[in-house]
Amino acid sequence: MKHIIRKILKEEFKTSNLKNGKSLVASQWAEDFIKGHEKLRLTAYDIGDNHITIGYGHAELKSTTKLVANKTKITKEKADQYFKSDYEEAYSCINRLFKQWESIGIDIPLNQNMFDVLTSLSFNSGCNTVRQSSFIQQLKIGEYQKAGEQIKTHGLVDGFGGLSTRRNKESQHFLS
User: Fold this and answer.
1) Nearest to 174 by CA among 135, 139, 152, 148
2) What is the torsional sign of CA 93, 89, 144, 5?
3) DSSP letter string over 115-149?
4) What pLDDT, in 10s, does the model give residues 67-117?
5) Cα–Cα distance between 128 and 124 in angstroms, integer?
6) How far apart, in Å, are the Cα atoms of 77 and each of 40, 56, 80, 83?
7) Can you tell me the distance from the alpha carbon of 23 to that of 42, in angstroms, rounded to the nearest whole number?
């Protein structure tokens, strides 16, 4: 079965650089993509999602944060520190998911583009949201094309129009 999935993926995505997601690290593309979409903001803000956000999309729950919207300010260096920590957590989440899958006999190989997109999605919507998503369930059974297509609608909410553009770019990158 593993051989068949690898063969199909190689044919479909024209790559021989397939690896288990437990051992991959997000690339420069992922970092640049995330920073480009999150945009640097040195003053905390509230977009109405029950979080206060600052830096490159660093979000903390309103009920537990010390960040105050429109008042808390940070330096670029602090924003970079937040980003590094959040970024590492995002790709570590994906590594852990693949380790768990491997422990139950599921071996779904990925290319770097796929891993980078999973990292971006984890960074943006959170580890648990990605783990419970419909696209990850499709990926888990080796339905790469369906997973890539479902990324387009992951987490879309009215009032967050830019998210649709981001999801379309993530889908394209995942499937390339």
Assistant:
1) 148
2) negative
3) HHHHHHHHHHH-HHHHHTSHHHHHHHTT-HHHHHH
4) 999 999 999 999 999 999 999 999 999 999 999 999 999 999 999 999 999
5) 11
6) 11, 11, 5, 10
7) 33
Which residues are CB-contacts of 156 (< 8 A; sequence separation ≥ 6)?
163, 164, 167
Q: What does the alpha-carbon distance between residue 146 and residue 56 come to, in Å, rounded to a whole number?
A: 30
Q: What is the C-alpha to C-alpha distance for residues 111 and 13, in angstroms, rounded to an integer?
A: 9
pTM of the model: 0.88
Phi and psi for 62 in degrees, rounded to 5?
-55, -35
DSSP code per residue over 56-98: TTEEEETTT----TTT-B--HHHHHHHHHHHHHHHHHHHHHHH
- Write out pLDDT tens, residues 34-43: 999 999 999 9
The neighbour count for residue 15, using CB atoms within 10 Å, is 16
Question: Rounded to a whole number, what is the distance in angstroms from the first to the last CA of the chain?
Answer: 23
